[in-house]
Amino acid sequence: MSVYKEFLLLKRDLGGLLTLFVMPLVLLIAVTIIQDSTFVSASKAKIPILLVDNDNGKVSKTVYDNLQQSTIFTVVTKIDNEPLTESIAKEAVFKGKYQLAIIIPEKLSVDLQAKIDQNVEKITSNLGMTDTLAKTQKTNIVNQKEVKLYFDPAVQMSFKNAVMSSVDKMISQIETKSIYATFQEQLGDGDVSFEQKSFISFKEIVPRVNDEEIIPNSVQHNVPAWTLFAMFFIVLPLSINIVKEKTQGTFVRLRTNPVSNSIVLAGKTVAYLIICMIQFYMMVAVAIFLFPHLGLPSLNVQGHLLMMSVVALFAGFAAIGFGILLGTIAKTQEQSAPFGATSVIILAAIGGVWVPVFAMSKAMQIIAESSPMNWGLNAFYDVLLRNGSLLDILPEISLLFLFFIITTTIALLYDKKKRTV
Amino acid sequence: MQPIIQITKLSKKYKDAETYSLNDFSLSVTEGQIFGLLGPNGAGKTTLISMLCGLIKPTSGSFSIHNLTYADNPNEIKKIIGVVPQEYALYPTLTARENLMYFGSMYGLKGENLKEKIIESLDFLGLLKFADKRIETFSGGMKRRVNLIAGILHNPKILFLDEPTVGVDVQSKSAIIDYLKQLNKNGTTIIYTSHHLSEAEDFCTDIAIIDRGQLYAQDTPENLIRSTANANNLEDVFISLTGKELRDDI
Predict the structure, then answer these.
(1) CA gap A396, A382 in Å, rounded
(2) Pick from B78, B85, B94: CB nearest A258
(3) Which pLDDT does position A42 carry in this prediction?
(4) What is the mean pLDDT of residues B141-159?
(5) Number of folded domains in chain B?
(6) Which sequence ranges are marked TM in the entry (chain A) (predicted)?
(7) What range defines the domain where residue B86 resides?
(8) Considering only CB atoms, which chain B residues are within 8 Å of A253?
(9) Is the pTM of this model over 0.90?
(10) Inter-chain CB proximity B88 and A249 less than 8 Å
(11) Domains of chain A (ranges plus CATH)?
(12) Cα(A54)–Cα(A26) distance, rounded to whole angstroms?
């Protein structure tokens, strides 16, 4: 009857129902689309970047071609039909109109070739292939060149690092190719030719199940994280439900009947656990069936649904325990609602929902270990991405259940202590 | 007759409070009485009822209900008492019937017995046709009547009522008092607090006047009036015992 009563109360609260079922779906869809487009460009929208070409040589042409061919960027060389200068580009980027400007310095191609020529000649001279003294006397000093990058101050560090790394790689490749070409030229008549393709390449070895590679995509990462985040928001309606009982006076009736507080809380736990599981299945269904229609990859559960359900169940227990504790301690909805929302966001942040735990500082990594959201996330990843078994997720789900037991016990003891005032 | 409630030297001092809310308080209530607990604001009435209902624990002293104590038999006591708090202790978004089904089930009542008891009580208090309407749509008087029914579905031996007629119209008050008299006739002992002294004078078989956490007088309304000089009614007795001083306190 307790469970039925909780469902009736929820059914009659349209705002609460929206919070419980619609908002998590909206959150999941919005965040996955945004995060997916950051890496995969699902929307095919490219990031425009400004390129100021003061070089007008071979190097700047290669940079332009490489950027233009990339799936992420589109190169802008004019604004309002005016050719770009460094000052125009700088102003546009610092005002946030563009996220990035690349300034290629004057005579970069010429000076690069000159520097390489000097170096190659030095080497060939040392090998006795040319007249060392004569060549060295003619050498001009070639100053180091600098490709300037301007970033919109609002751009995230991860984006900056990714761009700087790819520009650096591009420049290195140009330098290497030029060195090879110069050597080839110096050494003569075309009999000696260098293979200019990279000798060392990378190959990612991904886990295999039944001879099929499990290739994770952004949805496989995002759905567990944001599903967990949304499920933890059950803390809000649950704690408000408990606070309302105290302020409405029904609490007095519940405390003066023969049914113990633990039974009343058990009724709430069952009801809200069912809601958590419905939320979970709704979000998984959206990720499997709706995402492909939104240009996103479909969530591939590959026979892991049962194990994922186990993780969701225990994550639900943890969220409910937290909600019960918060509702018991808070005196008003004004206390429970903001605290509940903020604490869920904090738990998500330290739990690795936004920034992976491995990318955090050592101290934060230790703190992350104490977040139930981190336990749940790890368990989901174990199942979905690492093909883990029940044994693999046992530590995490045990911690989640222990969290529920501890928070509920504290709530019961707090309630008992309050009655002795 | 045997006392159904026996209170002995009961004291309660809240944490951080300077004075005792109830101090060395002794009282006995006989089975079958309609017992009025009267006193000005802050006298200690709600503290006393809260302790008797098991909501808070005493600082010292003891009491028994039907020869049972909370320390030994909390659930046995809770089964035989009914509580009607001053607040509307109901879920506003549930209907009257849903509220009563839920609170009845907390006493182990179920099925047809519970449904019939709900219909009978709602009918007696003129609410049957509103049984499936949400509480949030009810007037104050209607809520008070449902609040009362929620406390008596399990036929308690003792019923605690904290201001059951506060803020209701004359018709609702009359229906509530009639219903309570009916319950009492069927064997329920009633402990009742009120600020309506004329109502208490007519309704109660026995009255205790308390103030500053102590018992000032306990007797039948008639005896209290008779034993107080120049008193024509219970209000005169009340003023005579507790004074005219305002009791504003935070």
Answers:
(1) 10
(2) B78
(3) 40
(4) 92
(5) 1
(6) 14-34, 223-243, 270-291, 303-327, 339-359, 393-414
(7) 3-242
(8) 83, 85, 89, 103, 106, 150-151
(9) no
(10) yes
(11) 2-39+217-418 (no CATH), 47-187 (3.40.190)
(12) 47
